[in-house]
Amino acid sequence: MSCPSPFHRPVMIAQCLEYLAPREGGLYLDCTIGGGGHAEALLVRTGVTARLIGLDLDDQALLEAGVRLAPFGERVTLIAANFARAGEVLARLGVGAVDGLLADLGVSSWQFDQRERGFTFAPDVSLDMRMNQSGQLTAAEILNRWRLDELQALFQRGEVPRSGRLAGAIVAQRRVAPFRTSTDLLRLLDGLGLANRRTFHPATLVFQALRLATNREQENLTLLLSQLPALLKPGGRCVFLSYHSLEDRPVKQALREREADGSMHILTHRVVRPSEDEVRSNPRARSAKLRAAERPASL
Ligand SMILES: C[S@@+](CC[C@H](N)C(=O)[O-])C[C@H]1O[C@@H](n2cnc3c(N)ncnc32)[C@H](O)[C@@H]1O
């Protein structure tokens, strides 16, 4: 396996492989290919016959993954697509279902570190936040154009405290000057006492809520989950890695519902967390939660 890419250090690789249990000749779907780290580990594990389809919204990630996975040649198919449409993508490729599916949710370290992509709340960063750079909607557009009630609903959905007050302050502020950079928003949050608490940075929740809305992340995840277990062959497995409760909760709930109706069997009755060693060497792994389930072989 090549050296860990500076693009993104894949999280909980060993546990992902343990639960996916990839095998020779299998077909796998990486819904969030990113820099291709998980995909590479899976392809190495499965010898020379397994194949992998990788999706991403971000063209730059697909380029990076293309370089990393080039040694696997035609075993890899990379597609610019939203995982919300995973079923359609598979159908277009003439594939009914896969032996394993991985969804490593959220943004990659690389996306986060690219200031011009606007995912960080470092000062003077443009309020972009699009994973798909050809998408129309940016975080600035949301702040400058969405109605008061839409903004309030967005922040409520993102579990931001005092969402009504925040939405009202945004609408008042944009009458004075439009929001362009993270500094414009941080200044407003500071004025509301939302940017300077000692504990968890409340601005984190505001920026996260905007990112979720810009990329329709919650809707996309719901749509992906709604395609289970159909995306999987009988005996096929899925693994979800999430990084905050707004990702983990819908995964947990969907898998429980599938288990209740007998269409899936949960493999992780207790959520799986990274080891202390991994968190020490990759602090971005600290909030990761892994959940996995299997489509029963008899269905
Ligand atoms: C945490 S990174 C994945 C990193 C990857 N596992 C690796 O080893 O490098 C998440 C990736 O998912 C992509 N992504 C997020 N939502 C998506 C969606 N709805 N459809 C397709 N890709 C998505 C992001 O653009 C990002 O590249």
Notes on the protein architecture:
- This protein has two domains: 175 residues, Vaccinia Virus protein VP39 (Rossmann fold); 82 residues, DNA polymerase, domain 1 (Orthogonal Bundle), CATH 1.10.150.170.
- The model has no long low-confidence stretch (mean pLDDT 93).
- The two termini are 36 Å apart.
- Helix 7 packs across helix 8 and helix 11 packs parallel to helix 12.
- It is α/β, with parallel strands linked by helices and 299 residues long.
- It is built from 13 helices and seven strands.
- It has a seven-stranded mixed beta sheet, sandwiched between helices.
- The protein binds S-adenosylmethionine.
- The site of S-adenosylmethionine (SAM) has 22 residues, from helix 2 and strand 2.
* Quantity of strands, as a count: 7
User: N-to-C SSE series?
Assistant: HEHEHEHEHHHHHHHEHEHE
The whole-number mean of residue pLDDT values reads 93
Mind telling me which CATH architecture of the largest domain this is? Answer: 3-Layer(aba) Sandwich
Bound molecules: S-adenosylmethionine
CATH class of the largest domain: Alpha Beta
User: How is the quaternary structure best described?
Assistant: single chain
Strand content: 5-15%
Structural class: alpha/beta
Biggest sheet, strands in spatial order?
A: 3-2-1-4-5-7-6
Helicity level, as a percent range?
40-55%
> What is the approximate shape?
globular
Q: Which fold name corresponds to the CATH topology of the largest domain?
A: Rossmann fold
